[in-house]
Specification:
Length: 691
Amino acid sequence: MVSKQTFIDRIKKEFPDAIENQTKSYISFQVKNRKGKLQNFIEINFQNKGIKIAILSKSLHASDILLFNKKPDSFGWTLDAEYFIKDENSLNEIFPFINKSYEFVKGGNNSECYKVFREFLAKFVNQANIYNSKDIKIKRFQKLDGAELIYPAVTIEDIPYKVQMINSGHCGPKNGEGYIKLPYFGYQLNKIDNSWINIRCGFQRFKLTEFKIVKWYSNNPDEDLEYKYLVKDLELESTAEPNKILKEFYDNFTSFYRKEEMKDVNMLENINEYKNILLQSKNLILRGAPGTGKTYLAKEIAKELTEGHEEQIGFVQFHPSYDYTDFVEGLRPVSNVDGAIDFKLQDGIFKEFCLKAKKNWLYSHKKKDDLEKEKKSIAKISKYFANMEFPSDKLYTKRQSSFIITEIDENYIYISIPENEVSKNAKLKIKDIEAMLTSEFQFEHVKEITQFFNKNNATQEFSYYLTLYKMIKNESIQDEIIEIDNELKNFVFIIDEINRGEISKIFGELFFSIDPSYRGEKGSVSTQYANLHESDDKFYIPENVYIIGTMNDIDRSVDTFDFAMRRRFRFVEITAESQLGMLDEELKDGAEEAKLRLRNLNAAIENVQELNSHYHIGPSYFLKLKDVDFDYELLWSDYLEPLLEDYLRGFYKEDETLETLKKAFNKTTSEEASQSDKSDDESVESDDADN
């Protein structure tokens, strides 16, 4: 029998660039596909009798499949070829096939893709001919025997295809001739406009004889892409290498996906670059002209660094009235039970975010056994209070003193003591009860609690702690699933328009803590309200917290960073040109004209004496074209002109300069723009001469 470690070591040796990924039920190994994303090429399930693996069946020859247990197509499995390894011989036998799966994921075996595509087409044509007979009438919502077999799930080179074999009414042309939308297969090109690249089927005498490639939008007719292929020319029943016509069909069919894929790869590369900068620097500022998509980019970087977990991402937008109490901590008015207004110390958005990250940091450095005990304690506390109505019924201490629980929050249990003439109210720390439940101690008396918390004298609250400890301890959580997650996670806090607030006042003493070299406990500080804290714990920014800020250098409404704060951040400029790619996806066929007008306008802005590239117009403004039905005049008058008027206010010949910028914006060819620039220069020279 092959041991677990032997098999793992063999995988690592044979595939040194593979990345191990452990789940609750299996171990997988991943490698980057052609999109640059990690994808499984093998899944491994260790069992008592041996090792069960799953690899890609589409990477194998038809004869190879006989060695495997093949899962049905209808399940849509990616790794759908299973094999059971019992000994060294079967291990050696299977490794060449694991290699095929590995190569297929990396995209290095295109010939196999052609073969898989041919096999799929053969199956599709056969099924279309069966279910397109003139003798078959499919009634609406009729369920057919074996219907799951006529919707083959297929993914080729990471492209998932939707396959529609029958209609809810009639499949194919009623007269058996011509093209029809059903049956068809294809893939989604873009989710935003719901566009698809589909294959339409041509019929003669109820037999599928021809394919053509079309582009389909949810609200528009088919766009014929002028690619047509006769079924007979594809040689679908051949066992030889796929012919040139089939390869051409496949390449043309998937080329549209490849173009979209490259956009994704380029965007991913940019985001990865910024992500790596952030990992190195801890604090990053994305600076650039208005409308360059800095906020969008910041969110994408955060998603990449946190693997898309929104609870690990914080967001705030600074403005001139934003202050320390909003960001770190401050006194907030609250209403008491009797209706009176009181003030309560509350954490600000950033401190609250950091405390969540700190919790993860501490968890990641704990042993799983200790963490399990802690989680069980928390589960017992939650279960005990879950069904309690507040104020609670009377509870009694060991000496029969009564008390009532009035409310609880994340940190405290608030109690009322009616019989106490001196102190009617008290609050108990939830974390103290957690500590008691997690410990190995058995608390029977108040003095034991006193010793546990290293206090010289017992306090009145300890008697209430003892009562709750005993009641909560008896809670049963045997049926509860305790998930132990001690993986260290990244937390990203985004500050939009960071320079629009008085940043030094907002951060206060955290000015020291945000320095990358003082992250963690060594950067601990006492906050401005430390004297109101019930403990002496200092605040710090955990090492797993990263900060992204966005800013416009030209924003005149606020002061810029002071130099001491500025050196704590790394600045990266986001140019309008670098973000033009966002127009392709959103504007489609209108993107090229928008790009040209944008470039012409920005070139003209740079020619204005007191302006520079910081005053460029970003592509986000041109996304508004969809809202104004591509009316460029309306885009200019309602969005661009007011901004440019702000730029130029107080300038010499303000109106003439604005008109020059409008001319550049309205030029729709490079030649026109060049001629316009020359004439504008000549006009300026003649004006100077006249003066």
